[in-house]
Each structure stands twice: as C-alpha cells, then as structure tokens.
C-alpha cells in the first residue's frame, strides 16, 4: 500500500503500484511541514485505471445490490475503527480544526458509506396505458417499468475542502448503483482518499471497482476526464474548471454531475432575529475557514437592521480564535495554501479599492508559519463590486443594503451563481415566498442547516444535476423503460 518512507502508491486494478512520474509533497497548511509524498500518475496510468474499471464494470454491475450494500457497510465500519488516525491525517492535509476533521470530514464520510449501505428499489411501475388498434398492432393494454441502470465507469474529481465527505459522497452512491470508479483526488490533500481506498479494499471491493490516481499536474485530471473508457464525470470544484470539463464531456457525450462555485446570498429582513442571522452567517468565518461553496458570503440586509447586523457580525468575527487547528480553542484554521491565502488577501484589498468598508479583519494574523487569513467583514458594498460578484472562497463576508422585498430578491438573484441562498424573516409566509423566488438549488429559511436527504446542486453556473440521499442514486444511473402488453 505504501512505497519507501512516506511515499504513497497509486491504487489501480486492485494493486498498489509505483507512480511513473514520481512523487510530490503534500503540505500541512498550519505548519508548512511535509505531511507525506503523494504519487504523480502518468497519463498512461490514469488510462490503465479507467481500463481496469471498465473490465470490472460488468461483474460488479451484476452483483446483487444487497452484496454491494453490505460491502459499503463494512467499509463504514472500517473507517469508524480507524477514525482518529484518519482524522489526524485529514487535519494535517487540509488544515481543518479537530472538530471539523473528526465530525464533518471523517465522520460524514463514514456516514455516507453507511447511508448507501441500504438497498433502495431501482424499478418503478408506471400506470398501464390502453392502446387502440392501429399500425403498431391490435388493441392492447401496455404495462411499463422505469428501471434505473448503472451508467458505467465514473470519474470522480474531488475537492480539497473536504477530503472525506466529498469523495465518499461520490464513491458510495456510484458503487451502490453498480458503477465502477476512477477517483482523482484534489492535489492538495489526496492521502486521505487513499485511506478510503484501503478501507474499501479491506471491506472486499473487487479489483478494478475502485481506482485512485493522483497528481499535482492538470494533465492527470484531464486524462481522467477525456479517457474513452469513462462514461460519466462527477466533479466538485470551481466553475472555470467545471466549464472545461463540460466541454470535454460534451464532445464524448459523457454524463456529468457538476457541483461548482457559489456566492450564497443571505437575505435578512427587518423583522428577522438578527442574532440568529449573525450566528448563521458567521459560520462563513469559521467553517472550513470560509472554503465552502454553500457559505452565506453575500449578505443582503434590509436597511432597518443593516447597522445592527453589521455590528453583530463584526462582534462574532472578533470572538473567533484564529490559529493552530490542533489547539482545542481554535475556531478558524488556515486556508489550504500560500497561493490561496494570497488570492483571498488580494480580494480583500480589491474590496478596499472598490470602496467597501473593512469593518474587521483585513490584515494577516501574526504567525510565522501557516496560511492564515483573518475573518474579514466588508460593509457598505454595492452590487457591481467584484468582491460581491465573484467567489472568494475564504473567511470573507460582504454586506449590501436593500430597501424592500422586491429589491432584496433582485439583488440576491443578480449573480452568476445559484447554489444555496438563505432567508431570515420573522414572517414565515414571506420567508417561504421569497425562498420560492430565489434562483438557487437550495434555500435555508432562518437556518444554515442542511437536510442530508434533500437534493443538492445548483442553478446557473453553480452546477448541473443533483445528488445527496436518493438523488445521488439517480445521478449515478440511467433510466431504462421496459414496456410489454398485458397477458405476457
């Protein structure tokens, strides 16, 4: 499973193989130390992984669903048994706080394998149809079934912000439906995904059903997308990369599931519980250090509560401890890399130049090591500012004022993105009315909480398709119609 020293091998066709193109360093965002050496796959090795998945697809797709489900359950148990060591590695790779690494990364990853370890019906009977006699034969009553069939070989390209929950949310439902997978982890934190592969191997996954190939170069991901053996691409990441993947998928008529960028609007009305809104919006500062596409980063505040909300958000940010994610009191850890820290800081400076008021944050925390960004609040923003329109993906919240309901909806919808928006109002009827008017794949009403059976995905440039719960099983399947005359 491992090479010499801390060098990780690729997982291809059920074997742990040395990479053709050597290794690269995985860096701890908190210490800037080396966590381990990740394998750099060649294009040929990526194609070999897809070929192995193609060969394994037939037998795996014919395996009884109950057996596939049992394997996923065993994998969940193995992950749970190795919970602390897996969480320690995830923390080192991603810079997550201890609570996040344990609860939201490894914990959610295990829960997703457990979720898809139950068998759901793949056949849906349809109402019979009476056909009159005609060119296609005599009169008959036609029965029909809609049957979900696996797509085939699925390339799963995963995001760096959660090296457990995101891959598990792709791999588990894809396998449950009878697909085989080639997983291309994010280059920043791939080692956790190899631990996931080890758990699946120990659970008894047949050779070729799961393959993991990593690399720091773009061509590794490109090979995993454009390979002729691949039938579907499931991608989580930036809209720009998603658009390039979609072009390749279009040329090959590959199926796609795209969970892309977000600039979540939080519409807060004068009658809202301002403290509750501030607590919900404030999670942007702390949760994954703002590196999450579902965060309410764009606050649309009605003028009657605007000043109070800005004041409470600033107070919330000021109470957060920024620092070593391994320390018990830390709430805000580092962002993933020095390059990303520089990008977030450049956006804050851009906001200043555009005329936004920096209420809190805006300066780098005073640490000698680590890629830290202070929780930052930009107030008095206008809809045309780039900090309002573009995804920053860091602990930065922007606030825009509005007058009435119609304007609030218009400002929220004035975005290229539409992943998850939020509404805070004491008038529940209005909150739901506004929610229905928002062009987003999901809307939280007086909450930033999630229902993990609800469909997840975006409108506009926030993605294509839906997953989570049973919707993920739909995403990783094709619908086949079977029709027959009654009496047969």
TrEMBL record:
Residues 16-482 form the Aldehyde dehydrogenase domain. One of its GO terms (molecular function) is oxidoreductase activity, acting on the aldehyde or oxo group of donors, NAD or NADP as acceptor. Keywords: Oxidoreductase. The keyword Transmembrane does not apply. Pfam families: Aldedh (PF00171). Belongs to the aldehyde dehydrogenase family. This is Betaine-aldehyde dehydrogenase. The lineage of its organism: Bacteria, Bacillati, Actinomycetota, Actinomycetes, Kitasatosporales. The gene is betB.
